[in-house]
Predict the 3D structure of the following.
Amino acid sequence: WVNGNSRVSQISSLEFCNSHERGLLVAGSDDGCVRVWRGWEDTPHLVTGWSLLPELVPQSLAGSRVSHGLQLAWSQTGQMLVGAGDAKTVRLWDCSAEVRLGDLPTQSDSCVTALDMDKGVLAASFGDGQIKLFDYRAPPTSARIMAFREHKQMVLSLKMQENGKLVSGCTDGVVKVWDIRKQSSMSTLETNQPAVSLDIHQSAPVFAVWTSTQNISLHSLYEGKVLNQIRYHEGLLGNRLGPVNCLRFHPTLVQLAAGSTDCHVSRYSYRRY
């Protein structure tokens, strides 16, 4: 179906709400608009929509400015939607009351590339490689509680895991595991090749990378070793895998979806022999 974007804007992030029952699909566009859809499995219809960050400039009009569009994070327990992008603030929105809760200053000139939150802590990654942690329950001026600066390039993916762990991966193929209570990373894993797209599983110790060598490689988060590779050509008569521009793991199952530039989505799952 058609999301209803203008000619100059495009969808930059998707989130599921109320996934325990009749779920809602939240689509964030790079012009700062958010649209919520119900019945997306068969007959989708628009529930509501609003401009979450009207100061965002669509990527097609950004020129040489690097932007990842509008990035979203959803808190099911707090019924709160968080949005950020190439702006000076991270916006908190109460979806049950339909009001803005507040803005957290990013204190950065780079765009926000990923968001994730858990138990009152919000993690945001930036185009210059920085990762910042915020306590969104605190006043905006004192909300930032930690900043990590070990990544040298743009962070592509960011996931908060149990026991206060944070996992991040950037465009040079380096993945770091953090303890959010400490200033330095716990471990560093190197894929030894630049990453075009990267995603980290929410609970399983695995991450996936689409590299410049035109293949998807799956790595262990413990040792960094390659668990499997999905190549551009799967055999002489096999299916051809188009250039991938996005990877996303299932939040609970060990399944991976890959969206390619030829408008196809491929799904891969773990198979026990």
In short: Residues 161 and 203 are 6 Å apart (CA to CA). The first strand starts at residue 11 and ends at 17. The chain has a mean pLDDT of 87.
